[in-house]
Structures are given as C-alpha cells and as structure tokens.
Design brief:
This is Copper amine oxidase-like N-terminal domain-containing protein. Keywords: Signal. It comes from Paenibacillus plantiphilus. InterPro entries: Cu_amine_oxidase-like_N (IPR012854), Mao_N_sf (IPR036582). By secondary structure, the chain is an alpha+beta fold. Helices cover 17% and strands 56% of the residues. The chain folds into two domains: 60 residues, no CATH class; 108 residues, Immunoglobulin-like. It is built from two helices and 15 strands. Strand 4 and strand 5 form a beta hairpin.
Length: 188
C-alpha cells in the first residue's frame, strides 16, 4: 500500500514538474530597456509575441496613456515639447555655480492629440529637490506656446539641474511629466 501511494505521488510530482518546465519554456521574461534605462517590470515573450508593461514604457518616454475600458483599448500620446531658457534675451543652457539669475522658460508644444487642462514647469536641483516655477490652468489642444513669468533662482551647487514640463488632461488627473531639459551648473 505504501509503495502504491509513493508511486502515485511520484507520478503526480513528475506531471506537475513537467508542466511547470513547459510553462516556463512557453513564457519567457524579457529585459526591457528604453533610452538606456532598464524597466523594473520585465516583458513577456510567448508564442512569438512580446508583451510589454505599457505604463512603464509610457512613463519612460514621457507620454500620456489612457485606457478605454469599453473598447479594451490603450492609447499613448507623445506630444512634442521643446523648451528654451532665456535670461533677458539670451538663450542659456549652462550656468556658473552660485549664480542667482532671473530667467523664463519658453515651451513650444505640438503634436498634442488630446486636450490639456493645466501645465506646470519646475526645476529640480542635483539633490532632487523640486521647486515649481509656474503652474496654471489652460484650455489647449493641437499646438501652442507657453511662457513662464520671470523666475529668480540660485544655482547653489555644481551639477545637473532639470527643468521639467508637466501637463494634466483633466483637472482631477495627476501631473504627467512630458519633457525635460538639463542645465549644468559648473564651478568657476
């Protein structure tokens, strides 16, 4: 009787192990790298198709993503946002560490395939501290220009500062980063 139970258990374990090996071979994890950065969630490869984590890809590409439950459809929008930094009438991209300057951000937005309700521009210092330059409600679509008011800022440490441009589709949505520009503060 013990031999029979052991044989049945061995048979069940063999079938289960074979099934798990087949399932592992049928669905393989895939490393996903976007613009040189590896995503936290891996993609899956099965039956000649690759399935990717669309929310992480959209976030990495600084794009909007929307889900239509009734149509079972995912839509990704990636507007073009070109930012220019002006100190008086001079465009700049690098500054000297310790300088306190007054500047404004100009942004040209096109290929916007959805309406937006608000925009925000911020600056992030090399330590990761973010400060809002300007935020306001807008009613825009397709393409438009956006200019911040003059903003005074001290580039207190050497390193890379990031100017970020955010949008909201609806007032109740979270801010979605759509573009960024880097300013380098160099020691004199």
């Amino acid at each position: 009787m013990k031999f029979r139970k052991l044989l049945i258990l061995l048979l069940v374990m063999s079938l289960w192990g074979g099934t798990m090996l087949f399932a592992d071979a049928a669905v393989q994890k895939v490393r996903v790298i976007v613009n040189g950065s590896e995503l936290d969630d891996a993609g899956l490869f099965t039956e000649g198709k690759t399935y990717l984590p669309i929310r992480q890809i959209a976030a990495t590409m600084q794009a909007f993503i929307s889900w239509d439950e009734s149509a079972k459809k995912v839509t990704v929008h990636k507007p073009n946002v070109h930012m220019f930094l002006f100190q008086d009438n001079t465009i700049f991209g690098n500054v000297t560490k310790g300088n306190r300057i007054t500047f404004k951000v100009f942004a040209q937005i096109d290929n916007l395939l959805t309406d937006v309700s608000a925009v925000k521009v911020s600056i992030v210092d090399p330590d990761g501290k973010e400060e809002v330059i300007q935020s306001e409600k807008v009613n825009k679509n397709d393409n438009f220009w956006y200019r911040t008011d003059d903003f005074t800022y001290t580039f207190s440490s050497a390193g890379k500062y990031t100017i970020r441009f955010y949008m909201k589709v609806n007032a109740s949505d979270d801010w979605k980063q759509i573009s960024e520009k880097t300013v380098t503060a160099k020691s004199s």
